[in-house]
Amino acid sequence: MASLVEFTGPARLDRRTKRLVHRLGEDDVAIVDHADLDRVTAEELLETGVRVVVNVSESLSGRFPNIGPLLLVRSGVTLIDVAGSDLFDEVTEGEQLTVRGASVFRNGTCLARGRAREERELERALSDQRSRVTESLSEFAENTLEHLRAEGSLLVEGIDFPQLKTRFRDRHALIVARGRGDKRDLRIVCRYVRDFKPVLVGVDGGADALIEAGYKPNVIVGDMD
User: Fold this and answer.
1) What is the per-residue pLDDT across 150-209, written as a single tens digit (0 to 9) for each?
2) For residues 62 and 32, is the Cβ–Cβ distance under 8 A?
3) Where are the domains of the chain?
4) Is domain 6-128 classified as CATH 3.40.50.1110?
């Protein structure tokens, strides 16, 4: 699908894309800082109807197979990488921006020049990444072993967890993680949640998914970002 030649709209920006999607619409210019823009994020962006996404990081680094950028472009979204740009320092939420080609303008002044990601290019990159998946798995395994060497004592000595107020004994537990189809899955188990009242555990973005579905997480486990 062809990219837009020119588009003008208010800027919406956030370095946390999962926060940004809640205030995005089809008339906005989304500015994100999301290296290796993943499939789940791409699907959330598509749900907003947004037509232009400007990424100050590389949407596809080539480190592993990632269909996220391709999903956006195939759906007609103009995706522009302006890696290293200081748009987050230059642009204020809500001000009018014009995206022309692969460049971002404000009042006729060019703020950033980047690279529009094209469907054929992304397809070739994805195919190449899939052919090198064994190499990626090897790197992952080496990284895992390095962490085991550095923090192996935790497996023996354990981790001193804080005392929880939530009672797990004799109760079901439902653990929710952010992923493809999480909203649909929560709709499917709504009767189970109502009847069994399990402990609701949100893992990172899974806590957001629970709240969006109308639930209150009992426990949230995150990476503190």
Assistant:
1) 777 766 677 777 888 898 999 999 999 987 778 889 999 999 999 999 999 999 889 988
2) no
3) 6-128, 173-221
4) no
